[in-house]
Amino acid sequence: MSQLCRKVGRSSTLRRRFQHRVSVLRRSILRVLHRFLLCSGRKPANAVYTMLPPHAALPSSPPPPPASAVEPGRETVQVAPPPVFHTHDMDSDLVSLKITLLGDCQIGKTSFLVKYVGDENEQQEQQRKGLNQMDKTLVVRGARISYCIWEVQGDGKSEEQIPMACMDSVAILIMFDLTSRCTLNSVLGWYKEARKWNQTAIPVLIGTKFDDFIQLPIDLQWTIASEARTYAKAINATLFFSSATYNINVNKIFKFITAKLFDLPWTVERNLTVGEPIIDF
């Protein structure tokens, strides 16, 4: 009888072990099958997805303890909720770019800059600092672009100002006076100094005071225009003749820079006629 009991017990133990192993194997197969369905993008038949409330992703601050749970003599500290940032309150579409103006003294750089920016009060305040900075914001295809324009005065302190003014600039405007050939001869020196600190900025050569330039004899105009075109080719720059007094080519220069930076389809018409504001590239 005892042998029969032992045989029955042993048989039941083997049966339980077999059932346990089958159960473990079944769960493993189901787990592998479930992962395979998830990786293949299929939704399991018994999967249930619950939509979270709008603020469920933000951790909420713990509720303050009841008054009875606070020990006498101890202060309660309220935990502030985490800050919530709203992207619509930020200038997410604002692109800030830096442009540098170089050239000798008294050639009309500041007048050119003020004509474009249109803020004479800011110009008067910044001029005493030796390095003028003015901002101009415009909208291009829905995006706001802020040009931070740095003007180097061109006096004896220029060597100290050039590195700060040229680094990180997207365009360098080298300017000269159309009625003063010595300022034209300084163009190469300004270009070489600028390239020491910035090798990627777009170079633009600008002749100022075109309204005075057209009062010169026609043969002198032709000579200066030919020399200016030679300098522009030497530094691989686009050449513009401009006048801040009559707003000739001032806005067009910055439109040209914007088109070059953002690969826009806007193009400049070439003009090589002596007596007219020349544009050469």
Q: Would you spell out the secondary-structure blueprint of this structure?
A:
Blueprint: H1 2-39, E1 94-102, H2 109-117, H3 120-126, E2 131-140, E3 143-152, H4 158-166, E4 171-177, H5 181-185, H6 187-197, E5 202-208, H7 210-213, H8 218-234, E6 238-241, H9 250-262, E7 279-280
Helix pairs in contact: 4-6
Which key phrases capture this entry?
281 residues; alpha/beta; seven-stranded mixed β-sheet; 40% helix; 17% strand; elongated
Task: Characterise this structure.
There is one protein chain. The protein has 9 helices and 7 strands, in the order H-E-H-H-E-E-H-E-H-H-E-H-H-E-H-E. It is an alpha/beta fold. It has a 7-stranded mixed beta sheet, sandwiched between helices. A hairpin with a 2-residue loop joins strand 2 (131-140) and strand 3. Helix 4 crosses helix 6 (187-197). The radius of gyration is 37 Å and the shape is elongated. Residues 41-90 have low confidence and may be disordered.
Quick structural gist:
The chain is of the alpha/beta class. It contains 9 helices and 7 strands; from the N terminus they run H-E-H-H-E-E-H-E-H-H-E-H-H-E-H-E.
